[in-house]
Amino acid sequence: YFSSDAEMDMEASHIVELNPDFLIVGMGALMQEKFLLKVKRMGYQGIGFTCGGFIHQTAKNRMHYYPKWIDKMNLRFVYRMYKEKHTRTRYLQAAFLFPARFIWERIFG
Predict the structure, then answer these.
(1) Rounded to whole angstroms, how far apart are CA atoms 69 and 90?
(2) Where exactly are the structural domains of the chain?
(3) Whether pLDDT at 66 is above 80
């Protein structure tokens, strides 16, 4: 993560300068969305993706991170909140703050 907004600005500027076609960001909910919005505002023209826990989950070198019944019922976020306690606050913030910010920016630019 970034230790300051200035550090985030420097990295975002560097990415805009490189101009990749795709940008995959895995910093955790809210931080990764904030970073993608910053990169976009600075002129990034590519496609940005957030990958949530993908990097963390695949780093464990297991084929199936989630139990089959969790996958079948599409309850991955619930399982992560149970298994990874640090995700609870982030998920709850993301559920309320990010949609509000997104709508605000769509309406007011």
Answers:
(1) 24
(2) 5-108
(3) yes
